[in-house]
Amino acid sequence: MKIAGLLLAAGAGHRMGTPKALIRDPSGVAWVVGASRLLTSAGCSPVVVVVGASAEQVAAELDASVEVIEATNWQEGMGASLRAGLAALKHHPDPQPGTAGTHHPHLSLSPSVPGPSAALIVPVDVPGLTADVLQRVSAHAGRSALVRAVYKGSPGHPVLIGRDHWDGVIATAVGDQGARAYLKQHPPVEVECGDLADGMDVDTVEDLPEGHRPG
Predict the structure, then answer these.
(1) pTM across the whole model
(2) Interior CA angle at 135 toward 130 and 139, to 5°?
(3) Predicted confidence pLDDT, tens digits, the chain (215 residues)
(4) Contact 127, 156 (CB under 8 A)
(5) C-alpha distances in angstroms, 144 versus 59, 119, 165?
(6) Adjacent-strand bridge partners of 121
């Protein structure tokens, strides 16, 4: 089963003072690059990165191994990024027999290549995320799957959303809520990952892990 990686990297990072996609880890690698590589290492294909603030600068950090989608209304919040990313993934051919993908102006796809059955969704500001976490959550993948990582019982990322739910999430993702409204109506399976990572998102310079710095 093919699982897409969806990296949400469109925010301006107002509290950080710079887009968090451009924060550098101790090796000088931008967070957007590190997170996209993490999704690839966890077996996700395709990996779609949604950009918005400083879109050209963020996209320039990435190579051709990922698909870059711009959320032109990124200022609305995470909901806009999530809608843009899932809409792009919908244009990959549906792997279910008797269905087919439709044309997307940014993507060149062969209808003979099955698309993903689920999307593993990660925001760019969780630098402590590990491939082990992604693989533990993605082990529950399926068209009807709704799964989220929790850390010592507290909800976090990634969130795994099966293809059957994409339309519903697109219809309800508004503002900074992301998929929260949909997941409230359709409670996901919770997968404890606190033994693998802390799952904390980072919003300010003061909270950056040691050695990480604004780009």
Answers:
(1) 0.92
(2) 155
(3) 999 999 999 999 999 999 999 999 999 999 999 999 999 999 999 999 999 999 999 999 999 999 999 999 999 999 999 999 999 999 998 887 554 444 444 444 445 578 899 999 999 999 999 999 999 999 999 999 999 999 999 999 999 999 999 999 999 999 888 899 999 999 999 999 999 999 999 999 999 999 999 98
(4) no
(5) 32, 11, 7
(6) 6, 159
